[in-house]
Design brief:
Distance between the termini: 41 Å
Radius of gyration: 25 Å
Helix content: over 70%
Strand content: under 5%
Structural class: mainly alpha
Largest sheet: none
């Protein structure tokens, strides 16, 4: 990559570059290791406590696989931290608003906070991309091969792009890895078997978010800079830093605030990508403890049963004479096949959904609450709830004759099912938050230099940094609310490029070409890596 900032047109000089080579105090390294050790200890203690509380016996071999899978999942979030969050601190570092080491620690803290208040919606939008049979049998050999393959592929690609200092999307890498596993799972299935691959409708939804968000970053950041120039006439805001002097207090405060917003938003969105996969790992290894939400209070069960009964009536009304499945197992098979075909709205499927809803209602009634369901019954109840909930997700996209009150009843029922199966324990959030936060403090320099020096031909001004980060924070937070993953890297780097274009500063086409190339190649590369790993692990394990 060619040297950046070759012509600064009076907006600064190479001497204005921040001091990025200062070494952290040894005490900082000790604190880092202590926090890491405390986090891993906390994870181990929490798992043992949950397993013992559920009365579940976990074999030593399974416990080892669980630990290995969790380390890889947390490793993905760690790499995500130092790969993606470097974008958030580039503007405050290159405008001398915060010293580099303090900036990454500050960003790491707000990443932690963002993870802790996240909703979990993004986590399960990632999970729904996976083949349905692997989700239902995540504790099998194929399930572990799936988890290891997609996480290792995403980590390898992230590390490769980081080594070259190319801003790359962890979201793209993970989604590509999931698609690769899905396709490999489909290709490896025996001829004539009902095996699902990629949920292309869900992949299209995620892909649209990943495609449009960088364009939004470019256009909105450029527009915001122009609006700022029209409304705010203080020339100081549009100057590049002079030497290593910090900006005026009000500019400095604005830039720190926008950096905080991006870091917080990044934690809330990107931190969830590993959460859903960690939950799959836990469900596979310790289903009694994690397959169902045992924290749901007994007082909520009457409403749960009532919602289930109403949904059962809706399904039965639309089965239009189709015979009910002979057994609950047959109903599961019917709905599983419908999910693989991505088509649910048929009388036979409605009859099967009525049977599954009746089974869910009867089991909850029999045991009084979800948390009292015995270990032997947990996998079947969880699968019934997952299949029914996912079928209703697809029903929302299909043309049906459901009346408005019926749709309302199913929406309530779907919410109850998700509360029972789509949950994230607080200790999982803490573990991911620590991994992401600590990752922010390591390896950030390469990406910071690219964003700070190698996108535009002039030094980044205060207004450019603020505009790019404000747009990035708002875009990422909005995506988190609607439950879709977006790329912090691409939104912010394209935002910086947008402000450079609007400012007439010029763009370094070589860097933009590298970023665009990484954007285009990430999906196929991650798909190939994950698919190949999955094929190898299925044959080796």
């Amino acid at each position: 990559m060619s040297e950046a900032v070759v012509d600064l047109h009076g907006h600064g000089s190479l001497g204005d570059r921040p001091k990025l080579d200062s070494k952290p105090h040894p005490a900082g390294g000790i604190v880092f290791l202590l926090v890491l050790a405390a986090g891993l200890t906390f994870v181990g203690f929490s798992i043992l406590q949950d397993v013992r509380g559920a009365g579940e016996a976990v074999e030593i071999g399974v416990f080892f696989l669980l630990g290995l899978a969790l380390l890889i999942a947390l490793g993905f979030e760690f790499v995500n931290g130092f790969h993606d969050t470097a974008n958030a601190v580039a503007t405050v570092i290159y405008t001398h608003s915060m010293p580099p080491l303090f900036a990454v620690v500050w960003s790491g803290f707000w990443n932690f906070a963002g993870v802790m208040v996240s909703t979990g919606a993004v986590a399960y939008s990632i999970v729904t991309l996976l083949p349905v049979e692997l989700i239902l049998q995540v504790g099998s050999t194929a399930g572990y091969a799936m988890i290891f393959s997609l996480l290792l592929a995403a980590i390898v690609w992230n590390l490769g792009t980081w080594a070259f200092g190319i801003p790359n999307s962890s979201s793209h890498a993970l989604v590509g890895s999931i698609m690769g596993v899905g396709l490999a799972n489909q290709f490896m299935a025996p001829a004539g078997s009902a095996t699902s691959g990629v949920d292309w409708s869900q992949a299209a939804k995620v892909g649209q978010a990943l495609f449009w968000s960088p364009l939004i970053g470019f256009v909105a950041s450029a527009a915001l800079l122009l609006v700022m120039k029209f409304l705010i006439r203080n020339q100081q805001l549009y100057e590049a830093p002079k030497a290593d002097a910090p900006p005026p207090w009000w500019i400095r405060g604005t830039l720190i605030l926008t950096c905080t917003g991006v870091s917080f938003a990044h934690g809330g969105n990107d931190g969830q990508k590993g959460m859903g996969l960690i939950m799959l790992i836990l469900i596979g290894a310790a289903p009694t403890a994690y397959a169902l939400n045992r924290t749901m209070p007994d007082a909520s069960m009457p409403a749960f049963i009532a919602a289930t009964h109403k949904a059962e009536a809706v399904f039965a009304a639309h089965s239009t004479g189709a015979p009910p499945p002979v057994t609950v197992a047959a109903a599961r098979q019917t709905i599983g096949d419908a999910l693989r075909a991505r088509k649910v709205a048929s009388p036979a499927n409605f009859a099967a959904l009525a049977t599954l809803s009746s089974d869910i209602e009867n089991q909850v009634k029999a045991y009084g609450s979800i948390r009292h369901v015995p270990a032997a019954k947990v996998p079947n109840l969880r699968n019934d709830m997952y299949l029914t909930g996912d079928a209703m997700r697809l029903l929302d996209k299909e043309k049906t004759t459901l009346a408005a009150p019926e749709k309302a009843d199913l929406k309530i029922f779907k919410g109850k099912l998700e509360a029972g199966t789509r949950f994230i324990p607080n200790w999982v959030k803490v573990a991911v938050a620590i991994a992401l936060g600590l990752g922010t403090m390591v390896g950030w320099k390469r990406i910071v230099v690219t964003v700070g020096e190698k996108i535009g031909k002039t030094h980044l001004t205060y207004a450019q940094g603020a505009a790019a980060e404000l747009v990035a924070a708002i875009t990422i937070m909005g995506a988190e609310q609607i439950g879709v993953p977006v790329s912090t890297t691409h939104i912010l780097s394209s935002g910086v490029a947008g402000t450079m274009a609007a400012n007439g500063s010029g763009l370094q086409l070589g860097t933009l070409r590298n970023i665009a190339l990484a954007w285009v190649t990430t999906l196929p590369a991650a798909m190939a890596l994950a698919g190949g790993l999955y094929f190898i692990l299925r044959h080796v394990v």
